[in-house]
Amino acid sequence: MSDPFPFAARPIIEVQRLTRQFDSKIALNDLSLIVPRGGVFGLIGGNGAGKTTLIRHILGMLKAQSGSLRVFGLDPVENPVGVLGRIGYLSEDRDLPNWMRVHELIRYTQAFYPNWDPKYAEELREAFDLDPKAKVKALSRGQRARAGLLVALAHRPELLVLDEPSSGLDPVVRRDILGAIIRTIADEGRTVFFSSHLLDEVERVADRVAIIHEGRIMLTASMDEIKESHRRMTLRFGKAMSQPPALVGTLACEGGGAEWTYVCNGESEQLRRAAEAIGATVVDDSALSLDEIFVSRIQ
Amino acid sequence: MQIHITTHDKVPIYLQVVNQIKYLVAARRLVAGEELPPIRVLAEKLVVNPNTIARAYRELELAGIVEKRRTAGTFVTHQGSPLARRERMKILTERIDQLLAEALQMDVDLDDVIKLVHQRSTVMNTSRLKELSDV
Predict the structure, then answer these.
(1) Is residue B6, in this structure, part of any structural domain at all?
(2) Any idea what DSSP says for residue A138?
(3) B10 lies within 8 A of chain A by CB
């Protein structure tokens, strides 16, 4: 097969037309996605949108039913060692061996990774205030997340995959996790791929985002592009309208009478010209928050 | 250096950083020759992507507010303040233009607009004084 991505720097994750069905339910629907090397990639979606299913494919825990998936250019199902050895992973339910103590968990995980950095592991353990003698089972939710993060980070992976890393955590632990994401990519060339439904944290740390909904990617772009390419415009028409007149790039529209508010995909200038062309006056034109963009995209 | 980022704001994060540093320079809370925190340090402190801070510093450099020194870090320039003032005047002019356009559309004449501006200024000063005395 010829290489479909003939770039010098090959993307770290390449998903092509991936479909996954569980019984009659379609979890991933003809999904394609490119995650470039370096930076933080945020996967945004609600519950059941397909985030975890996609991540399980990336880790080789699920085999593609149709379509293909490459991580570091390799098939994670056929090359589990070549792929997983270079990934740090924190699952949403943070499944750690409960019977171990923290120091045992660290030693145990270390055995799997030739690149394990014991000094860094110890630094993280201290920073996270984890008691080496504590039983994993007895850890609080936040400490458990920190322990999971420690073992995901200490082999300095090329790719850090985090599934809903801060769900159910207090702000202090969330900050640790986001801080770890930031420090990871400050190390040159590393990539973070994380899923979240907390849009404020995605907005803070992600360079690029993809919106996933019902197993499909609705939008993928850099954070700046996304913010710059969506506007909310309120238009006034010469007379009351029973239906809002069509405007290019409209994602959502609400209002009534002579005044309608459009959420649009496009730049201010071009939308203003389009509004003029349908005989409307722009009475308000503003940017949107990531929350608002997300909602308009999945409606 | 005190910067506060909010994500509920529609202003992109890099621009919030740019605007607040401009403000700090204009308010003399950052003075010529003062060093800004390294990108990585500020990124960790504000919990934002380092590329966002890098972009903010680039914009500030283009605007002449800060300069990169080869071996050291990023410093506030000597021209920082007057440029920041020009910038502030530019922002205010845009707002005033909008206000005037709306006043015209709503058939409110200039004298009434000016009267209203004075009135609002009095209200705001009173409430600010009250805030200060509450502290």
Answers:
(1) no
(2) G
(3) yes
Q: What is the CATH number of the domain that holds B47?
A: 1.10.10.10
With CB atoms and an 8 Å threshold, state whether B43 touches A182: yes
Residue B95 lies in a domain: no
Contacts of B51 in chain A (CB under 8 A): 39, 207
User: The domain containing residue B18 runs over which residues?
Assistant: 13-80
Is residue A14 classed as helix, strand or coil in its secondary structure? strand
Instruction: Fill in the DSSP letter of residue A29.
Output: E
- Pair A244, A253: CB distance under 8 Å: yes
CB–CB of A249/A271 below 8 Å? yes
**Residue A30 token pair:** 């003809």
Closest residue in A to B41 (Cα) is: A183
Number of domains present in the structure of chain B: 1
Across A260-284, average pLDDT: 90
pLDDT tier at A155, thresholds 50, 70, 90 = very high
The pLDDT of residue B133: 64
On the 0-12 / 13-18 / 19+ scale of CB atoms within 10 A, B113 is middle
B29 Cβ partners below 8 Å, 6+ apart?
A: B1, B2
